[in-house]
Amino acid sequence: MPAGQLPQGDPDARWLAAAMNATFFLLLGSALVRFVQRHGSEVNAPTVVTLAVLLAAVYVIGPGRGIPAIPRDPVRPSVRTLAWLASVVAVWAVLVELAPSFAWVAVPLIYAALRTLPPLAGYALVGVLCLFVIAAQLTLAPRFDLDLVVGPAAVAAFATAVFTYLRRQAARQQDLIDDLLRTRRELAATERRAGTLAERQRLSMEIHDTLAQGLSSQRMLLQAAERTWESEPGGAREHVRTAASIAEHNLAEARRFVHDLAPADLARGGGLAAALRTLAERESRGGPAVRVHIDDHTGDHGAGSALPERVRSALLRIAQGALANVREHAGATTAALTLTVLDDQVVLDVADDGAGFDPEALPTASSAPAGVRGHGVPAFRARVHQLGGTLAIESAPGEGTVLTAAIPLGTR
């Protein structure tokens, strides 16, 4: 790999790599043409041409991994990288010894040394390359010229200073990015904790102001009824009726909490498929045997895990309610839950071999209680319709029942 080859994700890095590679081959090619034109008939000409071709081949092969254009931290080169760099420098040094006109190929090699080696080692290699260039220029000059010493040294020093500055800038920028990402993560965690605490406080206040207060009132009323049961039967019965009314209200509040919170089976993780299996296992203990079948056509082995939370919650609630109806009313011996996940919709089928019934006698969705409470078919319809889906029931007396809930997913 050429010394300028860089990771493919950064357009600027690819541009810099192309520029450095082009500079290397341009300097190498121009030096080779100059040598052939002026010294092509000399005895060592074939050796010089062979070394030039070898230098190009070694440069192209390179190490098998990319190195950042301006690494933020001192790099730790691998043995292969060190061997490649040593080979390039060695071939170039021999080539410069035979033909000093190849000295300026050191310019891209300086860049390769700085970006490949740790700082001190890179500076040392840059100094060695600079000495070779100065010696070659003095060899080609008819007499000693101070510019031939100062010029290459100044170019090398300037290139090294610029590279070092850019490396430190890259390190500072990366540190700022790391700090920003860390701050964002901490802020997100803080917001999640604040939201969790706020929700806990809201629920605790709701429960205290409704369920807890209601239970406390029921206890007091029932205790009063017990005390007056013999002496004042009418008053005791009134206390009991009041307690029953409070209990009914508390039941409505509890159902509201259940509707607003995610199902506990989904909260355990594993997606809808795992929640359905847990539900089936629980229902099979005191009722008909429940089987679960997952049919995933999307290639997602965690079927149901990528579904929207509202869809998962609605389908699990429907499955819970349908199995409750099977257990209480169908007289079935077996039931089956089938979850079919397609690209554009998800379908839940609940089938049983029970007594069946006439679907036409069911109440309509408009008669379902407000808030989608309870396990009845109207509640199922309301849940599905809220998500833009459809509910179908196939049943007949003595032939079992199949309930099908289909919810569209749009573009997955």
From TrEMBL:
> Molecular function (GO) terms listed?
kinase activity
Where the record annotates domain Histidine kinase, the positions are 315-411
Main location class: cytoplasm
Q: Which cofactor does it need?
A: [4Fe-4S] cluster
Keyword line: 4Fe-4S, Cytoplasm, Iron, Iron-sulfur, Kinase, Membrane, Metal-binding, Transferase, Transmembrane, Transmembrane helix, Two-component regulatory system
Localisation per UniProt entry: Cytoplasm
**Reaction catalysed by this enzyme:** ATP + protein L-histidine = ADP + protein N-phospho-L-histidine
What stretches pass through the bilayer? 15-36, 43-62, 82-113, 120-140, 146-166
Identify the PROSITE patterns for this entry.
HIS_KIN
Provide the E.C. number(s) assigned to this enzyme.
Answer: 2.7.13.3
InterPro entries under this entry?
HATPase_C_sf, HATPase_dom, His_kinase_dom, Sensor_HK_TwoCompSys, Sig_transdc_His_kin-like_C, Sig_transdc_His_kin_sub3_dim/P, Sig_transdc_His_kinase_ChrS
Keyword Transmembrane helix attributed: yes
Keyword Iron-sulfur belongs to the record: yes
SUPFAM superfamilies in UniProt: ATPase domain of HSP90 chaperone/DNA topoisomerase II/histidine kinase (SSF55874)
User: Pfam families annotated for this entry?
Assistant: HATPase_c, HisKA_3
Q: Which PANTHER family would you find in this protein's record? A: NITRATE/NITRITE SENSOR PROTEIN NARX-RELATED, SENSORY TRANSDUCTION HISTIDINE KINASE
Main function: Member of the two-component regulatory system NreB/NreC involved in the control of dissimilatory nitrate/nitrite reduction in response to oxygen. NreB functions as a direct oxygen sensor histidine kinase which is autophosphorylated, in the absence of oxygen, probably at the conserved histidine residue, and transfers its phosphate group probably to a conserved aspartate residue of NreC. NreB/NreC activates the expression of the nitrate (narGHJI) and nitrite (nir) reductase operons, as well as the putative nitrate transporter gene narT.
Q: What is this protein called?
A: Oxygen sensor histidine kinase NreB
